[in-house]
Amino acid sequence: MLYESLIAFQKIGDRSVAPQLEFLLRDLDEKVQLAAVETAGLLYNMEALPSLRSVLERTQKQPVRRATLAAIAMLPDRRTGRFCSPTCQTVTPSCGQLRRKAWAA
Fold it and tell me: What span, in angstroms and rounded, lies between the C-alpha atoms of 86 and 13?
């Protein structure tokens, strides 16, 4: 039920619900956690950035690491106003560090 709800929020695109879904980033069900991570990125939930970084640092599951890195890449860097995209040539140092960390495992 949680997974389907997250997918519905992604499709609706209502950013006002994003902060209320942050607790699902730590869900024990990997499918729900992946959907929550993806939803945080798609809804541009800047408030979830510390939690996303925490998930990236703590998880050992490669699919979760990849999804988390992709979600972080969807969020703009407040200092530069640029997005941290895995395909861009110029990235902020913190983005490059996160990317290297995610793919090193």
Answer: 23
Per-residue pLDDT reduced to its tens digit, 29-69? 999 999 999 999 999 999 999 999 999 999 999 999 999 99
The answer to whether 53 and 72 are in contact (CB under 8 A) is yes
How many other CB atoms sit within 10 Å of the CB of residue 65? 21
Task: Provide the strand spans (E) within the chain.
Answer: none
Tell me which of 24-28, 40-44, 50-54, 84-88 is least confident. Answer: 84-88
The crossing angle, in degrees rounded to 10, of helices 93-104 and 49-58 is 30
Q: Which of 57, 51, 53, 54 is nearest to 23 (CA)?
A: 51
